[in-house]
Amino acid sequence: MKRSERRKQEREQREANRVSFAEMAAAEEELKQVKAEYGIKDDYYIDRHGNRRKKRRNPIAMYFDHQDKRVKVTVSKRNYILLLIFTGWAGGHRFYVKMWPTAILYLALCWTGFSMAMSVIDLMVVIPMKKDENGMITI
Q: What global pTM score does this model have?
């Protein structure tokens, strides 16, 4: 068999095996339903070598999930702003609202100027917040 005939045959075979996007989407939806029916968690994937690997969580998504689950704290707006102005460089305002990881990060990086820059951003977020009749805000 000539090379050109072989290539033509391979091309025809690829065309015959090609799956449309709609068929692929339907197959994925069916797979998702079957996994849900049997209680299979979708936390693994098959890599390009055919090995089963655990999915890694995106750190940014993990942070926002944590923020959504975090219990909101009601604090005095005046006290928060004062702490922000005088101890923002060390994360004092973050300790006040019990945001421990970022408070420790601010404290650890206070010598770099990072926490000061982030405190300015925190100040810009807090100033326009509406306080209730007792002067409290929820953070």
A: 0.59
